[in-house]
Amino acid sequence: MIVGAQWGDEGKGKIVDLLAQDSDLVCRYNGGPNAGHTIVADGQTYKLRHLPSGILWGKECVIGAGCVVDPGVFIEELDEMERRGLSTELVRLSGNAHVIMPWHLAIDRGSERRLGRLKIGTTRRGIGPTYADKAMRLGIRVQDLFDPKILRQKIEVALAEKNVWLERVYGAEPIELEELAEGHEGYAQRLRPFIADTSLLVDRALRDGRSVLFEGAHGTLLDLDHGTYPFVTSSSTLAGGAPAGIGIGPTRIDSVIGVAKAYVTRVGEGPFPTEIESDDQERVRELGAEFGTVTGRERRCGWLDLVALRYAARLNGITSLALTKLDVLSAFDELPVCTRYRLRDGTETDEFPPHQSDFHHCRPVYETLPGWREPLDRVGEAAALPGAARAYVEFVEGELDVPVTLVGTGAERERALAR
Ligand code: GDP
Ligand code: IMO
Ligand code: MG
Questions:
Q1: Is the four-CA dihedral 176, 178, 179, 184 of positive or negative sign?
Q2: Which candidate in 22, 24, 37, 184 is catalytic?
Q3: Low-confidence residues of the chain, pLDDT below 70?
Q4: How would DSSP label each residue in 303-319?
Q5: Cis omega before residue 230 (within 30°)?
Q6: 3-state secondary structure of 222
Q7: H or E segment at 27?
Q8: Distance, CA 173 to ligand 2 centroid (Å)?
Q9: Cβ distance 45 to 293 under 8 Å?
Q10: Residues near ligand 2 with C-beta < 6 Å?
Q11: 22: annotated active-site residue
Q12: Which residues line ligand 1 (CB under 6 A)?
């Protein structure tokens, strides 16, 4: 199980791609096209939205019931992969996954606009409204696309309510039934070959002794229950979300690799204790190319936060860590690492504050580690890392009591050192 240990964009795609070589199945269990997983291989860059990062190796790629799917985006992605010479024959989509409908996109946009400076800073891909309708039991599922009568009926029921909302609350254009129903009946043709009972399929693969990788989307602190609510996404991003989202038992997961950057980034609004206050933020952003995969927005950059990472280790049961983008830190003489938070009453803690106001107002307490000031792009093995880089990694391990088994030294597939 591979899971993002910060606020997303930790480099999960690259790590999953690396481990997919030796796996048989790669499964997504949460989220939708709000995810953007980048893989750089053989001089080509792939930005995946829906498809699991096993697609480059031609592995069986599963999109489970816990995901939400925008059929237009999904089909575009399938077409792009085929165009680039990759087979999509082994892609499997759960009929229980929910469909992102045009009103979900319109409501996501309208809601953000209306919230103004209180906005969440979503990716505007309709994620929250789709999961909300799922919980309301008003959602449209992938399997509904294959029954035109049911589909029309469900769209009609939904539109009766959504159009009032769109027009009266957000002053947006209403959505027309005919056009929409026809378009979605068209999607059904294209999607039919991919539909499978994905829970059964994964269960059988495990029984047959095949190796299954679960690819988390987003990150721990964006989890709906345990993240920095309301500045979170609307799905379960944690390792515990995988069995529920796929439909297997939790006892089937035997190891959890947390992926964390050697620093921290966050896209969108919300508290961020270690956000860098000096020009160094801009330097990290430029050196790390920290611009969103999905929206192109600038990512906010901060120093490594071990309080938040300790929380991620707890929430996910992380058994080992992949620490990515260590190369980006080569530019700095000194590296502040947050080991504790100072709360408003002056006390210090190394555990993540359970109360939102404590988190919003806490100040990071840093230990400053020496930088190494050497590029890492020529380093071929972990033992050959500069001493200060090794010490940085060891410091993280010591503070978290979790081994770091992979270190990222560049975006390309080869730039990961095993420890
Ligand atoms: P994901 O959403 O977790 O898969 O991460 P993203 O793909 O959104 O963002 C991570 C970015 O960092 C991508 O552009 C990757 O190509 C890049 N990347 C991943 N690992 C490394 C690394 O070790 N060093 C550098 N410099 N870039 C990396
Ligand atoms: P990957 O899988 C970074 C953030 C958005 C916003 C909040 C809610 O590439 O790591 P949403 O559209 O989900 O309702 O937005 O969550 N967010 C991400 N940030 N990486 C992601 O995915 C994200 N998915 C959602 O920026 O703050
Ligand atoms: Mg991303």
A1: positive
A2: 37
A3: none
A4: --BHHHHHHHHHHHT--
A5: yes
A6: helix
A7: strand 25-28
A8: 26
A9: no
A10: 4, 7-9, 34-37, 120-123, 125, 127-128, 217-219, 222, 231, 233-234, 267-268, 293
A11: no
A12: 4, 8-14, 36-38, 40, 289, 293, 324-325, 327-328, 408-411, 415
- Residue 219 to residue 106: CA distance in whole angstroms: 25
Cβ contact 6:308 at 8 Å: yes
Q: What is the DSSP letter of 168?
A: I
What length is written for the chain?
419
- Check the CA dihedral 48-112-70-270 and report its sign: positive
Which tokens belong to 295?
Answer: 């929206």
Distance 184 CA to ligand 3 centre (A): 28
- Asked if residues 106 and 175 have their Cβ atoms less than 8 Å apart, the reply is yes
Tell me the per-residue pLDDT of 157-214, one tens digit each, with 9 for 90 and over: 999 999 999 999 999 999 999 889 889 988 999 999 999 999 999 999 999 999 999 9
What is the token pair recorded at 329? 């830190």
Written as six digits, the tokens of 158 are 């939904």
Structure tokens at 226: 């345990």
Reply yes or no on whether 133 is catalytic. Answer: no
Which residue reads 């009568």 in tokens? Answer: 149
The tens digit of pLDDT for each residue in 67-106 reads: 999 999 999 999 999 999 999 999 999 999 999 999 999 9
